[in-house]
C-alpha cells in the first residue's frame, strides 16, 4: 500500500511540473548558457575578436588577459567570440581549434595540461607522468595536428597561486618549440593585480593584451534580465517589480549578472513548486535566502581535489563524535584517503596551509591552542552545515569510495 501511495505522490509531482506555466526554457537562465547577444560588452567583444582574427590570416594571435569581478561577463564574452571564430574557421577550412579549461576545477598543473591534451584528442593517465613528459606530449600533439590553437584558462589566478607560475612559463615559451602550429592563451581572472605578481621573465614573454570588464550597474542588469526573461519565461509569468528587485539585489554585490540571473531562475523555480502562476517579489526574497545557503555547496563543489579530501577527513572525524580535531589527526585521515585512491599525499605543511584556506572560506574554524610543554597545535572544527558539505562532496565521482554518506 505504501508503494502505491509513493507512486501516487510521485505522479502528482511530475504532473504538476508538466502543468507548470512559469518557464518557457529554464536553461536560458543558467551560467552555462551563452546568448548570441551580450549587451554592454560590445567594446570587449570587438577587441577580443580583432585580436583573435589574426588566426584567420594564419598568424598567431597575441595572448589575452581579461580582468573583472565575478559575473561581469568575462567567460561568456570569450566563449561567444571563440565560438564564432571556430564557425568562421570551419567555413574557410582553416585549422583553428580552441580549448577551454577551468583552472579552479583542476587540482594541479598536471590536470590542466592533461585537460588540454585530452581536448585535442590525446590520452593522459590520471597520475603518473612528470610535467616535463606532459609538456612533451602537448608539443607532439600540437605539431601532429598543425594549425592555430587558442587555450582558454578560466580562473587562471587560482592555479598560479596554488602551484606557482611554472605552468604559465612553459606555455608562454611553447611557441619556440613549435614549427607546424602555434598556441595562444586567453587568461580569465578576477585578480586585477594578477600580471603584476608574476615572475618578470613570464611578464616579458607574455606579450599580452589586457582587457578589463567593469561591473554592471542596476540599469544594465535590468536590461540583461529583461532580454533573458523573454526567452526563459512564458508571457506574463513575471509580476511587476520582480526584474527590478533582482537587478537591485545583484547591483549591491558589485554588479554580478550571474547573481541576478540565479535570483530570477530560483525565484521561478520556487513559484512553480508553490503552484503559483506568477513569479512575485516574495519568491525573489525566498530565492535570495536559498542562494545564500547554496553558497556553501558551490564553494565545496569547486574546491580542488586535495582540499576536498582534507575537508572529507574533517567531516569523517566530526561524524565519529569528535567536536574538533588536530591537524595531526586530520593528516592521518587524509593520508588514508589518498592511499585508497592511489594519489600522491601532500606534505603535512601543505595540508596545514589548505586547512587555513578552508578557514578563510568559512567552512571550518581553525585556531591555535597551547598544549603547555608539548607546544602549540591547531584545532579544527567544521562550522559549515554538515549535510550541505556532504552533499557537495558526494557529488564528486572521484570521492565516492572515500565519502560514506550513510554513516
Automatic annotation (TrEMBL):
What Pfam families does this protein's entry cite? Answer: AAA_22, Cdc6_lid, WHD_Cdc6
Keywords in alphabetical order: ATP-binding, DNA replication, Nucleotide-binding
Q: ATP-binding: is it a keyword of this entry?
A: yes
Q: What is one process in the GO biological process aspect for this record?
A: DNA replication
Which terms does the record give in the GO molecular function aspect? ATP binding; ATP hydrolysis activity
- UniProt key word DNA repair: no
**What does the entry list as the binding residues for ATP?**
72-76, 216, 228
Chain ranges of the Cdc6 C-terminal domain: 311-393
Name the PANTHER family for this protein. Answer: CELL DIVISION CONTROL PROTEIN 6 HOMOLOG, CELL DIVISION CONTROL PROTEIN 6-RELATED
Q: What does this protein do?
A: Involved in regulation of DNA replication.
User: Which named protein is this?
Assistant: ORC1-type DNA replication protein
Show the taxonomic lineage.
Archaea, Thermoproteota, Thermoprotei, Fervidicoccales, Fervidicoccaceae
